[in-house]
């Protein structure tokens, strides 16, 4: 059987570049090389697209992974989008793209739009789903419309902050209370997020968030547990058993997520059966409300009174060695890491085949 050409896009201009490298490192070492010919496409922090002749080898380290785009040992490196299209995407045979680009310029619909124009099957959410889930403000509005409970929040732009700063501080105090969380609207991995316990910290947190984005959201703090579920599929998505990280951190920030070696995954999370069922049901509702396809991770808060609040949807959850998404599937139905990648690629081909197809007949 002829192998499928798999183009793995990683790196990128986002501040989540390092997270993308970690995800790509794990994925590239897990892909079934009997089924796929793998072509890594490294995107530098400056946005330069690079391909390399080492596509048949597994990277042995993070440094080697990051260098897959700049070296021309096989004489076919390219330093532009056009070069990548010429060297890789024009290769004959069945092909599919696997974007592993977290954050801006990769998880926001931009790369997805390019792949749509190229008529290239690709893994993960489409243009609308990617854009809607990455923008926390837009996602919250859509979840509100769908009747899915969330913590109280406000959102405003940099321009509004510059014009109405003191009034917005008072509004956050009045409507949300302290402590609260300030978040850039279009970033993940807890980058740029601050837990603010007083007015001074709130002002500093807002200034910090605006270093990364021109819009932010501020959320009321929910005291309780953070429960995650994995969702996979297109028209008929399926949902995993819920999981949670057992940790000692008040604020689960970037370092806590990726550097804490004492993190413990609890999968399935210890929950009453009715709560587990409700979380899985709400996850599917949220997935559909945000027009998701392929995959997503849906995060909830469960407070001491048993109330559930949808925290966010991550359209490209991490696939690192400490990431919850692949482990939730393994403990739900026994799907291995390599099998999970294969299933996601199958969903990509199915969605591509369905484009423009009207199946309804009376």
> H/E element string?
EHEEHEHEHHHEHEEHEEEEHEHEEHH
Number of continuous helical runs: 12
What integer value in Å does the Rg equal? 21 Å
Number of DSSP strand runs? 15
General description of the model:
This protein has 362 residues and is an alpha+beta fold. Helix content is 37%, strand content 22%. It is built from 12 helices and 15 strands. The strands form 4 sheets. It has a 5-stranded mixed β-sheet with strand order 4-3-2-1-5, with helices on both faces. A 4-stranded antiparallel β-sheet has the order 6-9-7-8. Strands 11-10-14-15 form a 4-stranded antiparallel β-sheet, with helices on both faces. β2 and β3 form a beta hairpin. The longest helix has 18 residues. The protein is globular and about 65 Å long. About 5% of the residues have low confidence.
Strand and helix map with partners:
Layout lengths: L3 E8 L5 H14 L5 E8 L5 E3 L10 H5 L11 E2 L1 H9 L5 E5 L10 H8 L9 H8 L1 H10 L7 E5 H18 L4 E5 L9 E3 L2 H11 L5 E6 L3 E10 L4 E2 L4 E3 L7 H6 L4 E3 L6 H17 L4 E10 L4 E7 L9 H10 L3 H18 L8
Parallel strand pairs: 1-2, 1-5
Antiparallel strand pairs: 2-3, 3-4, 6-9, 7-8, 7-9, 10-11, 10-14, 12-13, 14-15
Which keywords apply here?
single chain; 362 residues; alpha+beta; 5-stranded mixed beta sheet; 4-stranded antiparallel beta sheet; 15 strands; globular
In short:
This protein has 362 residues and is of the alpha+beta class. 37% of the residues lie in helices and 22% in strands. The protein has helices at 17-30, 62-66, 81-89, 110-117, 127-134, 136-145, 158-175, 199-209, 254-259, 273-289, 324-333, 337-354; strands at residues 4-11, 36-43, 49-51, 78-79, 95-99, 153-157, 180-184, 194-196, 215-220, 224-233, 238-239, 244-246, 264-266, 294-303, 308-314.
């Amino acid at each position: 059987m002829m192998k499928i050409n798999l183009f793995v896009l990683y790196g990128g201009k986002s501040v989540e570049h390092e997270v993308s490298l970690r995800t790509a490192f794990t994925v590239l070492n897990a892909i079934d090389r009997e089924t796929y010919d793998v072509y890594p496409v490294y995107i530098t922090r400056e946005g330069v697209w690079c391909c390399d002749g080492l596509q048949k080898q597994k990277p042995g380290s993070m440094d080697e992974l990051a260098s897959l785009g700049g070296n021309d040992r096989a004489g076919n490196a390219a330093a532009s989008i056009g070069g990548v299209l010429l060297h890789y995407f024009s290769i004959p045979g069945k092909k599919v793209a696997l974007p592993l680009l977290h954050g801006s310029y990769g998880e926001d619909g931009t790369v997805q739009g390019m792949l749509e124009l190229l008529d290239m099957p690709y893994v993960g959410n489409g243009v609308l789903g990617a854009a809607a889930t990455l923008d926390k403000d837009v996602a919250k509005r859509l979840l509100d419309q769908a009747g899915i409970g969330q913590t109280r929040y406000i959102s405003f732009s940099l321009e509004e902050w510059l014009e109405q700063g003191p009034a917005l501080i008072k509004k956050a105090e009045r409507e949300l209370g302290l402590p609260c969380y300030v978040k850039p609207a279009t970033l993940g991995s807890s980058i740029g997020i601050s837990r603010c316990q007083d007015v001074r910290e709130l002002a500093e947190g807002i200034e910090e968030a605006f270093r990364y984005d021109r819009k932010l959201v501020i959320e009321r703090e929910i005291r309780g547990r953070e429960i995650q579920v994995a969702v996979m599929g297109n028209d008929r998505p399926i949902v995993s058993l819920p999981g949670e990280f057992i940790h000692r951190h008040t604020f689960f920030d970037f370092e806590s997520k990726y550097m804490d070696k004492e993190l413990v995954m609890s999968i399935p999370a210890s929950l009453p059966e009715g709560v587990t069922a409700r979380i899985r049901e709400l996850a599917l509702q949220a997935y559909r409300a945000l027009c998701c396809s392929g995959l997503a991770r849906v995060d909830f808060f469960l407070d001491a009174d048993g109330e559930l609040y949808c925290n966010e949807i991550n359209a490209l959850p991490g696939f690192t060695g400490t990431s919850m998404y692949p482990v939730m599937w393994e403990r739900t139905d026994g799907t291995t890491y390599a099998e999970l990648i294969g299933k996601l690629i199958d969903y990509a081909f199915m969605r591509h085949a369905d484009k423009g197809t009207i199946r309804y007949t009376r």
